[in-house]
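User: Can you predict the 3D structure of Peptidase A4-like protein? Sequence below.
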Amino acid sequence: MAISSSSPLLRGAAVALLVAGALLAPAAAASSSTSDKPAAATPSPDSPVSDRAVPALRGDAARTATAPMVDERLRKREASRDAARTSGTTTITPWAGALHVVWGAFPNVSSDGAQATHSINPGISIPPGNPDIVYAPTLVPSGKSCIEVTTFYWQGGNGVGAWDWCAASPGFAAVAWIDSNFVSTYTTPFQGLPAYTVLDVQTNAVTNSWTAYLYNYTTSSWDALFTSADTAKLSETHGGWDMFEVYTEYNAATGEGYYCTETYGTQYHAANLQIKVGGTWSALTTSNSSVTPPGSVNSTDFGCYGLSFTLQTANSHWQVTH
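Assistant: Sure. Here are the predicted structure tokens for Peptidase A4-like protein:
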């Protein structure tokens, strides 16, 4: 994958902001149960847009909640996040600092939008002192996009956030905590898990304005999460991604990354992946996207035993199971 200013490989310092208890704590975690709610059909990207905003922290409040401590962790992660690892082994070689790894679907065309169904795991509880961050799934339509929409799990809470790549200092610009209200409003059952549907689309080609929406299953319409614009991003013509992303540090007590213990028994799905090119929506396939890294994926390369990586539908539905 080409490394650009919006590449996840260059945001090590920025994502390292999520390393300590949030100053604005999330509401009580939602139950992982989807109750008796029937599964809904995949929303159309042309469904009505409401005049409502997704309830979320925004601006300085979002940054405060997700970045209370930066200095020590920032330096530590930047200095050692690419520590050498031995692949193809049956054991996990200890590493220093943060290991940054990704796997998922990468469109190979510049699109004007993307839509996906992302499962959530409200029951995940990463305790204080665990330095790891799991972004799964996390979506960027293309290089010119302003907004990355990510599901994140860390010691400060679980949430769905809009990361503003068009800000002078990129960071979380909107954060919706995964609580009972979020689950009941913005999710539907999907393969035994609650899942939300995100639409991240360019709304003005001249100003390169983008808006990220979440589908409101109670009103059958799109609610806005965040909007941003920057014409400078128009020069970035590469594709985007929808992927499983982890920043993990070695836990000598378990012999693997810290996140493994707290996320055991979970599944992560990114399904119904589609992109908008030339005004037409098309599902991700092997012709318009690739899977990175390709081929068989070694769980130990992710600092964790027992992860499995599968494509239920190439390349519009990937799944990671632990």
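The helical segments are 12-15, 60-66, 71-80, 180-186, 259-262. The radius of gyration is 18 Å.
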